[in-house]
Amino acid sequence: MIPHAWEGLEGRAPRTVAVPGGLVGRGSLVRLLPRGGGDAFERALDGKTATVESIQQDLEGVVQLAVVLEDDPGRDLGVARQPGHRFFFAPDEVELVGPPARPAAASILIAGIGNVFLADDGFGVEVARLLAQRELPAGVKVADFGIRGMDLAYELQEDYDAAILVDAVPRGGEPGTLYVIEPDLAQAEGVLDAHTMDPVRVLGLAKVLGSVPARVLVVGCEPGIQMEQDDDELRVELSPAVKAATLEAVELVESVLAQLLEPGENPRQEDDA
Length: 273
Hints:
This protein is of the alpha/beta class. The protein has 6 helices and 12 strands. It has helices at 40-45, 75-79, 123-132, 149-155, 199-209, 240-260, and strands spanning 16-19, 22-25, 29-32, 49-57, 63-69, 87-89, 94-96, 108-113, 140-146, 162-168, 178-181, 215-221. Strands 6-5-4-3-7 form a 5-stranded antiparallel sheet. Strands 9-8-10-12-11 form a 5-stranded mixed sheet, sandwiched between helices. The longest helix is centred in the C-terminal third of the chain and has 21 residues, at 240-260. It starts with 15 loop residues before the first strand and ends in a 13-residue tail after the last helix.
């Protein structure tokens, strides 16, 4: 067991790995069986159940399972890449206790981004919330990243075939107008602002860290209300036009998903951003 193996975990890992009991993948439930020297830390984890958050592989081909304990009150912090809540185990140090994983035809991330305190900037967060309530194809993960650009950049290092970023995108149209955009990654710079989420800059940082999925699309909405960080008042409600567009955006994301999952098809898109 490697408690905090942050360095050297690079390269594309397999989506499923054989462990005692069957195949595991992202989301599989396992029992921890550390094979180390039996120190106090390992004894505390021995027999605990955990969820596989990701499968990672270093440059020498060594595979590790990143897991989050089921009974850890701070387990959500592990997913946010906070130290102390995410542990690494070799495949022979766990056993499957849930159903075996099924290899997905494709792995796609849907990331809702934006600031919910800046009116229509919270569009992506609301769409992610609605999508999380829908039954989506196997291999599709929906997550609300808010303004956590670093977390999203690290998440993009996982073995995704494609990513769909959902965000408010001012392009001069009528409020509530929806767009499908494929960003020009060549112009992406890896610089982040701690208080905002710029999708293109996040993609640039993801490139610096290692890689981005082969396809990255943005499902955007024309905002009706644009606010700045230094505005005197905060507003958590979406404007009527953007609120109405969230349900249509859910259907649009599902349509883009269907096209991404269909071999040989490309989703409808606007000009590069």
